Predict the 3D structure of the following.
Amino acid sequence: MNDELSQHKINRGHRARQLLSDPTLNEAFESLLADADEAREQSKPDETLLREECHRAKKSIEALRKKLAFWGSDADIEQKHLDELQAKKETADVA
C-alpha cells in the first residue's frame, strides 16, 4: 500500500474519532434515535411501514457510528504499519 493511501486512512480515522466525540453530532444522533422511538411508539397498528422506517433509521445511525469507529481503528493499524516500515528503513539506512 502506498504512503499516500495510508496517510489518507490515518487522517480519515483521526477525523472519524473527532466526529464520534463531537457533542453536537452525538446530540443530533440521540435526538434522531429518540424521534424514531417516539414515532414507533405512537404508531397505529396498521402503520407497519412507519415502524419499519423507524427501525431502518435507527439501524442507519448505528451503522454510521460503527463505520466511524472502524475508520478510527483502521487508522491505528495504518499508523503502526507506517511506523514499522519507517523503522525498517532507518535500520536499513544505518546498516
